[in-house]
Design brief:
This protein is α/β, with parallel strands linked by helices. The chain is built from eight helices and eleven strands. The strands form three sheets. A five-stranded parallel beta sheet has the order 2-1-3-4-5, sandwiched between helices. The mean pLDDT is 89.
């Protein structure tokens, strides 16, 4: 999951980044509304965590503008504004969830997973694909009931594919899901992770669409895993 955190408080922001990263999420952090707009133009994100008290612009105004432009990214408002009116205003402006400060990082992560689950149209957290079962929260991967050990990058790659069944994802889109923008990548890094995923889960788990990118293979893709 690629998360954009828009939070100007350095202490809170560093805690969020560290906590979500420790749970296997890829996180980018900005501290202003202007920086958030710029970041959304250069990379794809699965979800956005938005503080309302930004130094250059109120977060609600930013959210309203993003929605008016047709941006459908799920947004969780994270703020100290705790009145019912504030929460109603946030939800009516286009927020998908509202979490008050102070908060527990485990709850924040759980809410982000829930937002993605809703977007994908799933009622449960587990993602099943043939013999493959993946739990985004616990990051547990099972193939035919047997646990499969995946690295953090391999988990992010698998989750991106599972959440976009039937959709062809470009190399850049997959890289956005797997790596932070500050990560230094070798030219063949994505291909290495795809190779490892195929070796562990079956050659057909990732299909190459020549000239376009990659997509999730058919539900029986795990049959040839060794």
């Amino acid at each position: 999951m690629h998360v954009l955190v828009c939070e100007d408080d350095e202490l809170i922001a560093s805690g969020i980044v560290a906590g979500l990263s420790a749970q296997g999420l890829t996180v980018e952090r900005v501290g202003t509304a202007a920086a958030a707009r710029a970041m959304l133009k250069v990379a794809e994100f699965d979800v956005m965590v938005l503080d309302l008290g930004l130094p250059d612009e109120d977060g609600l105004k930013l959210l309203q503008q993003l929605r008016s432009q047709g941006l459908e990214i799920p947004v969780l408002i994270l703020t100290a504004r705790d009145s019912v009116t504030n929460r109603v205003d946030g939800l009516q402006a286009g927020a998908d969830d509202y979490l008050l400060k102070p908060f527990d990082l485990r709850e924040l992560a759980a809410r982000l997973h829930t937002l993605l689950r809703r977007v994908a149209g799933r009622s449960v957290n587990l993602i099943e694909h043939g013999r493959l079962t993946y739990n985004p929260s616990s990051r547990e991967t099972l193939l035919g009931g047997e646990s499969v050990d995946l690295s953090r990058r391999e988990q992010a790659l698998l989750q991106a594919l599972l959440q976009n069944r039937g959709r062809v994802l470009s190399s850049e889109q997959l890289k956005d899901s797997i790596y932070g923008l500050s990560d230094e990548l070798e030219s063949n890094a994505l291909n290495v992770h795809i190779h490892h995923l195929r070796r562990k889960l079956g050659n057909g788990i990732v299909e190459t669409v020549r000239g376009l990118g990659y997509r999730l293979g058919p539900a029986d893709a795990g049959e040839d895993a060794s």
